[in-house]
Design goal:
The chain is of the alpha/beta class. The protein folds into two domains: 1-55; 64-315, Purple Acid Phosphatase, chain A, domain 2 (4-Layer Sandwich), CATH 3.60.21. The chain is 30% helix and 22% strand. It is built from eight helices and 15 strands. The protein has helices at 6-25, 29-43, 50-55, 89-101, 132-149, 165-173, 185-188, 216-224; strands at 64-67, 72-77, 105-108, 154-158, 193-195, 197-200, 204-207, 227-230, 237-243, 246-252, 282-289, 292-293, 297-301, 306-309, 312-315. Strands 2, 3, 4, 5, 11, 12, 13, 14 and 15 form a nine-stranded mixed beta sheet that branches. It has a six-stranded mixed beta sheet with strand order 1-6-7-8-10-9, covered by helices on one side. β6 and β7 (204-207) form a beta hairpin. α1 runs antiparallel to α2 (29-43). The longest helix has 20 residues, at 6-25.
Length: 316
Amino acid sequence: MSKVSDQDFINLFKKHGAAELAKILNLTVRSVYSRRKRLEEAASSEIPSPAASNTRWSSQYPKRLPIKLENGVALIASDCHYWPDVITSAHRGFVELCKRLNPKLVILNGDAFDAARAGRHPRIGWEESPTLKQEREAVLDRTHEIIQASKSAKHIWTLGNHDLRYESKLSANVPEMEGLPNTTLADLFPLWEFVVSAWINDDVVVKHRFKGGIHATHNNTLYAGKSIVTGHLHSLKVTPFSDYNGTRWGIDTGTMADPASNTEGGPQFHYNEDNPQNHRSGFIVLTFKDGELLWPEICHAVDENHVSFRGELIKV
């Protein structure tokens, strides 16, 4: 079977996943993922794999966490993909703004834990990747810096697809370990509250991902009917949407890693083969006044030593 229509490809991908579909179509796994990405961008929606459909969210974590924030600041970052011995300017900027803005809420919006060795993708050549133990230590170090800089804040971690690689790997291969210590993300990172989504004042939804494609932020808020903050796509942007109900926002929190765009990029993204990516490093600042969300702000990582925020170039 060498050629299939787009719809047949989508159906087969949902049923078999990338590795099995590559065998069926006599293609490379990377070719399958490339076609999937093109179809997702064309449709502005995600094509889930069987593994994603079955293990994306664990029932042990709350589906929604309601949060009241009448007046104050929320700092939201995502896709940190923390790596041993790599501390990005975006991360240092996040810590700095935690100190400056004294946020009441800090959210890691998914994929702080890359879990490279627990992923479904095969190793590329002889590439090196850290062990899960090394990754966990790196995440603990970086998140400890955030917590120390924002001691009065509530610390939330909305689950991302990379985060759940750890538990999915264990449950699929050693199910008899269920319930033992250190078999969940909550065990590994006990100072964070893990949820699928956080709902601020019932008007702003924070979750790792929803729609896909280049128009994701627009479609996210259009179909959610609320302001919605997502990560996953690394695009770092704010898209307003106005109708008879007023203005709401689709917000992409970008990535706190060093994306493979204008620079070489972090070691997490070497699979990109040095292709240009429409990705940006930084994070989002939300300010609430009398329970209402003001216009969302972006903090952008300019280079290895600076971030920009509110017209200021901040050395970090």
